Amino acid sequence: MEHAKLKSRSEIPDEYKWRLEDIFPSDQAWEEEFVKVEKSLEQASQFQGKLGGSADQLIACFEWMDGVGSDLEEIYTYARMRRDEDNREALYQGMTDRAGALSVKLGSALAFVVPELLAIPEKRLAEFSKTNPKLEIYDHALEDILRKRQHVLSTAEEKILAEAGEMAEAPSMIFGMANNADLKFPSIKDEKGQEVELTKGNYSQFMESSDRIVRKEAFETLYHTYQKQINTWAATTNANVKADAFFAKVRKYPSAIESSLDDDRVPLTVYDALIKTVREYLPEMYRYMRLRKKMLGLDELHMYDIYVPIVPEVKMEIPYPEALKMVREGLKPLGEIYLKILNEGFDSHWVDIYENQGKTSGAYSWGTYRSHPYVLLNHQDTLDSMFTIAHEMGHSLHTYLSNQTQPHLYAGYKIFVAEVASTLNEALVMEHLLKTTEDPKVLAYLLNHYLEQFRGTIFRQTMFAEFEQNTHAWVEHGEALTADLLSQQYLKLNQEYYGPDVVSDSEIALEWTRIPHFYNSFYVYKYATGFSAATALARKILQEGEPAVKRYLSFLSSGSSDYPIELLRKAGVDMETPGPVKEALEVFKGLVDRLEKVLEE
Question: Could you give the cofactor binding note from the entry (predicted)?
Fold first, then answer.
């Protein structure tokens, strides 16, 4: 097995590792801080029942919460990142569990805060602001809590809802157990004719196989396995959607979707405009599918043919130092300030670069308010790994600039804007490569790679978003989500989104059964809006230069000091209009034109 050759953590040279000592110099220092914070939680009770007493009391409580929140962030992040270095280490497993439990304790100790704030009359809060200017910094945070006043119930009712919340998690937990623990797929024959057990992990590799028989068998085997439990999947979906509808109704929202969007104060028009605009550009998606069909030399393009690369013969080997160089070059349009911080990250042990035994897979950007950001990678010398560096450093610089500019209260940012900085970096690096690549095969490979990002992130996630909107609307109008209804409607959407040149195989009607995000309702649309905003902003940066860069850096420095829609508007994209999504899809259209041209030459 390849994993047997993996180095142990101790065999990786320190120059390729992050430096977590920048958070705590030693495990002993972590332990001392843990004991101190655990003891300090007792102090929460001194504020209970007194928040409406005076401005001073309110500020004292906020400042205490902020301090202990920062301390806990350091404790949890250090323990978890140490665990991620090698998940087999019992010491760090234990430290992570303890940090998680401490976090729950803090949440419980502060459960009184929101109900007490909502009980303070607005007039009294206004008086507080006049008497103590120090309260001004909390204006946005208070507004975000108070604007939901009409949706918050009495303390007793809130307690019941909190208890019910645990039951409402059941559909997601049942799906997770059935999907991850109980579901077993049969074996299929791989490209060499050897029997290989199909797993969710290797399914995507089979979908990219150049052997069509392998792709077809993997596709059919996967969905026929899901088909066997179809009534269970329908029941968990129905229960999940009913829970969303119940909580929205009890909290006096017109619908589940409006309840969900209100968390980010995103109007329903943004969601509707996304679907409407993407549907207007479906002919461009159909054109891309026709091109795929032509390039693969197929009489019929099936759903198991849409992931295989059109230009399979290109193998780009990009060692880590070369990848850094490409990222630096691609991000030059963001200016000297950005590049200086980027280089600091590369040179100052922010990044944990290579895979080792027991290390957490994938990639992420994390860190604490008091430390610099950190990036976990499992770098392979591939194009994808190079883009991963650009992506994760986008998150890290967003975090770095927000931390430098904002108080701890507003330093974190919402999911709605979280993917903008990372995706924008990828877009700029891609534009640089498209401009400087001379080899037609490599150019076609890059164009195909970029088009696949659009297909997967804007078109596919919007199709998911439309499906979610429909399922919730049906339940809210009294319909039951049966397996037949879900499959028929999903197949119909798939046909509409992929167009007449793709055979929507009967198996694809079951795709809804295997999407975990459907249990975190109205989340997937944020992928599409984030990607659209990033693409539109990247275009502005390349066209306008300095003024657009200035607005963008200001956006990166804003954390959550305003609502996501407002922050993006200041950066230069108004998500309440179809403009940004249209701009992104115009880029998609241009890429299809360009790929057609390259392939003809």
Answer: Binds 1 zinc ion.
